[in-house]
Amino acid sequence: MINADCSPLKAPLIFDSHSHYDDEGFDEIRDCLLNELPNNGVCGIVTCGCDKASCQKAISLAEKYDYIYAAVGIHPDNISTGTTVQDIRLLAESKNVVAIGEIGLDYFHNAENKTEQIKLFEEQILLAKELDLPVIVHDREAHADTLEILKKHKPKGVLHCFSGSVEMAAEILKLGMYIGIGGVITFKNAKKLPDVVKMLPMDRMLLETDCPYLAPEPFRGKLCHSAMIYYTAEKIAEIKDISLNEILEKTAENSKKLFGL
């Protein structure tokens, strides 16, 4: 059993802007964990779908837990599942859907289908703009194309699990978008990210887990969950030399503003 009581927080200050609670890694503990997280500092969670099936699960979780919200989209790694943009349009009709995501480009896993990825990414951005929803963007080793597409369409949203340069971050900020920071900031081999965090204005930062992946130190390599954001925020507070509570309160406020909560 995973221990939800890993955070010293009791006040609900943590908003996890990006998670995957539909993941099979949670199957044996999901309900117990999600019942406990609000008692361990978590005030809100966005759980993201990656294809039709996972989007349906995300919506079901949002219907069951009043502090959880759903995002629906086709992840670039899930193009072959047969999920269509029309499927996402219909799923987005749920009152519990607050964003189109996780969408974007991934040239690390799938460099051979760049054209197909770009087409799907643009179609989903256009859908988000039509529905007046923010986008949650995945960008892995596709910085140039991601930035070009975002500049072209100018959606509202967040670039999640940011891995680009300070210069790219500045361009994202110019577009009025948010930047998501997760457990990677606590890793010893995080080289560019501390500089990005230093320059990020507090009103443009979101915190996230991407759980069950990317657990922060001291839990690296273990199953991640939203209460662990405490340790991510602790590291950011150290880098920016401001209080932990200020980090948590402002990033929660930012998430609620972006997702219309």
How would you characterize this protein structure?
This protein is of the alpha/beta class and 261 residues long. It has one domain: TIM Barrel (Alpha-Beta Barrel). Helices cover 38% and strands 17% of the residues. An 8-stranded parallel sheet has the order 1-2-3-4-5-6-7-8. α8 packs across α9. The protein is globular. The mean pLDDT is 95.
Detail the topology: elements first, then pairings:
Elements: E1 14-19, H1 30-36, E2 42-48, H2 52-64, E3 68-72, H3 85-91, E4 97-106, H4 114-131, E5 135-140, H5 143-153, E6 157-159, H6 166-174, E7 178-181, H7 193-199, E8 205-207, H8 229-240, H9 244-258
Parallel strand pairs: 1-2, 2-3, 3-4, 4-5, 5-6, 6-7, 7-8
Helix pairs in contact: 8-9
Residue windows where pLDDT falls under 50 for at least 5 positions: none
User: How much strand content do the residues show?
Assistant: 15-25%
CATH class: Alpha Beta
Q: What's the average pLDDT?
A: 95
In short:
Helices cover 38% and strands 17% of the residues. With 261 residues, it is an alpha/beta fold. The mean pLDDT is 95.
Which features does this protein show?
single chain; TIM Barrel; globular; alpha/beta; 38% helix; 9 helices
